[in-house]
From TrEMBL:
Residues 224-420 form the Metalloprotease TldD/E C-terminal domain. PANTHER family: METALLOPROTEASE PMBA. Pfam families: PmbA_TldD_3rd. This is TldD/PmbA family protein. SUPFAM superfamilies: Putative modulator of DNA gyrase, PmbA/TldD. It comes from the Bacteria. Signal peptide: none annotated.
Length: 421
């Protein structure tokens, strides 16, 4: 596809555009679906896509289609020629220059028997150990994509990438009632013999089975939260959004000028995982992903605008992918729970839209009350109030255990000073 991408790039440049970027992606997916505790579908799908971004007279236009034939490409270019005049001018518009490389990552061909065996093992664990847990939907798939990206500034990148992905959603139901929905998902380079042993799937089913009987907390109090990895993902997601285009360009980020400052507990370091399962070797803007330490012992090292955003803001550009890792700490999660006098174990953290300064009030879901170091009743209609930026400062402990979701690798975190109601 490199030759075809260069042909399309030449056609775009020949149509009068000053700069352009062309990306062609071909994807093959082998997928097995489980619905309502039964295997429901096995299918193979193939797709292709073309994405073009072009610049003319400091104006930018883009288009994407699912066909690569000459007539389609000609129509795409004609439409872009028509539309570019309506785009606002901006000195920051540019394409990646000089990025080159060929990459091959992950399993290149699917093991269909392994996909079937993984589904069988998951259903067996559910049936034998957690019969009240209902798998509403589960997809176990192998995806393989070949991506080719070229630009008029000399970028030429090709990646052949494969990985397995598991996504599961379900709830529990027994004579006491039904639990709320819970979900988990991530990428793998190989499927294990027992699927429930990865990504905390077994723990998710066990907790869900206990959530059919829920209670409210009673009196308001201030205490600790222990965030499970999926809730930690919510916390990290808030941080990275604060460092991205939307917050930075509107000057609404808590960390607008915080590079070099300590914004979290010194025990916390966050880095990306460019070699993780499912992580692309280059991003959609045409830059090779490099290792990044976002927080170094609590200190913010960089911000995460897009390439265009970095040019608008006049700050360094950091190519990154979506996965982030927090190294394990020095306490087991069992001891972490035992150290909580009054608080909650939180599976999901729904913060809504925190205020610009980080203040929030949100519902905790798939959660349990912690009293005198014991995990007790499942909680319902429980709110926590606090400040997300302060939560990073108030991390008291990081678990030794780390859950691997492929791109993200996250431990449990104990955080003090949240208000419960």
């Amino acid at each position: 596809m490199l030759t075809r991408a260069k042909q399309i790039l030449a056609a775009v440049e020949g149509a009068g555009f000053d700069d352009a970027r062309v990306t062609i992606t071909e994807t093959n997916v082998n997928e097995l679906n489980v619905a309502h505790n039964h295997v429901s579908l096995m299918r193979t799908t193939e797709s292709q896509s073309l994405a073009v971004m072009a610049i003319q007279d400091k104006r930018r236009v883009s288009a994407s289609v699912s066909r690569l034939d000459e007539l389609t490409v000609e129509q795409v270019i004609a439409d872009m020629q028509r539309d570019v005049a309506n785009s606002p001018q901006d000195e920051a518009y540019a394409v990646a220059a000089g990025q080159t490389g060929q990459f091959e990552r992950g399993p290149q061909t699917p093991e269909r028997e392994a996909i079937a065996a993984a589904a069988k093992s998951l259903l067996q664990v559910r049936s034998e150990q957690f019969p009240t847990f209902q798998i509403e939907e589960c997809a176990i798939k192998h995806s393989h994509s070949t991506s080719t990206l070229v630009s008029t500034q000399g970028a030429a990148l090709v990646a052949a990438q494969g990985h397995y992905r598991v996504g599961l959603m379900g709830s529990s139901k027994d004579e006491h009632g039904s639990s709320s929905f819970t979900f988990i998902g991530g990428e793998l380079n190989a499927l294990p013999a027992r699927l429930a042993e990865v990504m905390d799937i077994e723990l998710l089913m066990a907790n869900s089975a206990r959530e059919t009987r829920t209670e409210m907390i009673g009196e308001k109090f201030t205490g600790d939260v222990v965030l499970m990895p999926m809730a930690v993902m919510d916390l990290v997601g808030w941080l990275t959004r604060q460092l991205g285009d939307a917050a930075l360009l509107s000057h609404a980020s808590v960390y607008q000028n915080a590079v070099g400052e300590c914004i979290a507990t010194p025990a916390l370091s966050i880095r990306n995982n460019p070699q993780g399962a499912g992580q692309p070797p280059f991003n959609g803007e045409g830059f090779v992903i490099q290792p990044v330490t976002l927080l170094d012992q609590g200190k913010l090292t960089c911000q995460l605008p897009s390439y265009i955003g970095s040019r608008k803001l006049g700050i360094p550009y950091t190519p990154f992918a979506g996965g982030w890792c927090i190294d394990g700490g020095d306490v087991s999660r069992a001891d972490m729970l035992a150290g909580v006098e009054h608080g909650a174990l939180v599976g999901r953290l729904s913060m809504g839209s925190p205020a610009p300064n980080g203040d929030f009030s949100g519902v905790i879901k798939n959660s349990f009350l912690l009293e005198s170091g014991k995990q007790t009743k499942a909680l319902s209609e429980t709110m926590i109030t606090g400040n997300v930026a302060q939560m990073l400062q108030d991390i008291q402990a990081i678990s030794r255990e780390v859950t691997d979701f492929g791109g993200s690798q996250l431990p449990w975190l104990k955080i003090s000073g949240l208000r419960f109601s």
